[in-house]
Amino acid sequence: MCDLAMFLGEQVKIMNGVEGFMYPNEIGLQWSVLIVLYPFITGLVAGAFILASLERVFHVEAVKPTYRLALLTALSFLIVAPLPLQLHLGHPERSPEMYFTPHSTSAMAMFGYVYLWYLMAVLVFEIWLDYRRDIVLLSRSSRGFLRVIYKVMTLGSDNISPRSLHIDEKVGWIVTLIGIPSAFLLHGYVGFIFGSIKANPWWSSPLMPVVFIFSAMVSGIAGVMLIYMAVTKLRKQAIDVHCVDSIAMYLFYIFIIDFSLEMLDLIHRIYEAGESFRSLNFMVHTKLYFSHIVVQIILGTVTPLALLFITQVVKLSEKVRKRIYVASACLALMGIFAMRWNVVIGGQLFSKSFLGYTTYKMALVTREGSLVAVGLSILPLFILWALIKLLPPWSTEHHPQQAATGD
Amino acid sequence: MSVLKDARHLFRFAGLFVLAFITFLAIRHYVVPPSFGQYGHYRGNAISDIAARPIKFAGHQACETCHTDVLDAKSKGKHAHVNCEACHGPLARHAEDPASVTPVKPDTAVLCARCHTATAAKPKGFPQVDPADHSNGVACETCHQPHSPAISGSNAPSAGGAK
Amino acid sequence: MNLSRRHFLVLMPAAAIAWKAVLAGTPEQAENYKLSEHWWGMLIDVPKCIGCGNCVRACAAENDVPEGYFRTWVERYHVSDENMTNPEVISPDGGKEGFPVVKEDEKKYFFVPKMCNHCADSPCTQVCPVGATFVAPDGVVLIDQTYCLGCAYCVQACPYGCRYIHPEKKVADKCTLCYHRITKGLTTACCESCPTGARQLVDLKNPKDPIHEFLKTHSVQVLKPQMATGAKAFYYELDGSVR
After folding, report:
1. Whether residues C72 and C51 fall in one domain
2. Which of C10, C46, C50 to mutate to test the interface with B (most CBs of B within 10 A)?
3. What is the pLDDT of residues A330-343, one digit of tens each?
4. ipTM for the whole complex
């Protein structure tokens, strides 16, 4: 009789995906794939902005062709960023409470203000300042509803005198300068949201915000590089090889820093072998093996690093270099997404008793399911397409088409 | 002055911010609950809201007001500190209006077994028996009066301890 | 029932009046309840727990706790003296219907009731972005469910796993120390229904509280002291293997 009860108990345990012991309330995961997607998206925003600031503040002329595209990419992703959060909340209609009564001890409370600051006072402001001349010209030349849109965007000012443009340039420089720490804050606070939770040893680390920021830069730079190459090809223009060479170099060095930080965290954990180490180590070798060791580290970090390293030390043809850049950027993006997955989902797979593990059952068509996640990942690209149409990053003059050999 | 003329668009942009900020403050004034911040960073009235929730367990003092005879019997036996509703379940509605709710007598086969089934996990000194061995299927209340469970007299069975 | 008729006729109306006052939320005691005069905690006497699950059932009944979620639960430990860092722990349905019978072996068994520790330096209130959860002035950690967004940050921040998101209300939920009872002079549902006195409510600001006296004269521990949460659920004879 008691054996049957024990046996049935075991079956129930295996049925709901729990191995070992978990506190009863811990069995279902609280933060889903949408909460994985959110830092990935804000990471792309921050990284794209840093790439744009390379040209504007640090005068890296080589990356100039991607400047406007990087800003529009950042804006497209930033617009989508709150959506996974709203879909996750039990009461999204109460989210304005974060604006009205933000709790000063909560890192999450600063989301509303940091987001709004970054959106309006940095990104929209900078895009507006850089595009203002084009907007005014377009408001004169376009017709119909589009004309109304452009007119509104001019804020009623028709002034594109050299002096006003000069002022725009100076102010834009300051905005970009302020934008760099703002971008770090926009994404760094997310790292702090995880890093400051003493209850969760997989998350709790002072390195977390720094790792998040550097991996964000990797993803943003890789993302903009891919978008630039794709859009340029779609426009049947020649890719500025000097530009992508430059971007790839920055990608490589920032990736090294990111990898070093993550390895430092890992080595520190293994060496100190604290209370949670045995449980976490087991988790990484079993439940997280594929996503952490295979996808994040081997395919998503070491491989692109090795590929980029080759392009930095061996002289290769343009065609080969471009192919390697595309491969590395794709792998890097996959690796950074896997990193977010391993942090968010991994942090909830083990019990805070360090005695058990659970399983993440990702549904397909629910509010927080995989279909929604895929949809939210693609949505920014549609918004980017619309923004490119509305605010073309390139001048409307005809570019002489270079014979693209082996593009 | 020409600087201002060429920077007028910037002032308009800033003006949008100021307008938005003022609108925000106005909305905030109306939306934030009045008792917010009374004791700390939370809605002060939440405390009384939570305190006003309905009660399901009457508490043994409510039972003892009426059922004094049971109280007398219980206080002499081993179940003296077992409260009424530990066995009889939540009965606040009965305490409020005894006629409206007639409590159902618990089934001793299930009830007693919960506490007194012998297992190595329970503290050694705690009275526990193997229900099958102990009574051969006879209901517990045949020999044990639940309110004062000790069996007096020469036919007191030996305490079946944990296996 | 053997009440004499006279007893009945006298006691009934008196009890009814008193009880109506309790249920209406304005009893004699509640009117005099001052937040600043109380500092609530709980004593859990581990050797007394028999794993009957009364507390889990009583809490679920008193507070309409949804199936599969737990404001309190009981864990059973099976510990070897050679391997104290690796106990076997089970909590079948939170211990609601008790535990399966086991045979004696060379390891030790004991039960550990768990609940919200009503931490004085609560990490869950620290992380709430809007101020929906808070430490009330009398030491109880509460949730304002009309204000909670359901972001689950507090659930992540609790080291003890005592919080959950209510599946229907979609807000955070947890043990309230039966606040609606203790402010009226009653004890919590779990303490009321515990047959062995393993759970006892304590008012740390009341010098006459007998449990206060117990705490002063016995060795007690809190769960995960290294988290420095100021936990106020005190465990008597808590084994070192307890997580």
Report:
1. yes
2. C50
3. 999 999 999 999 99
4. 0.89
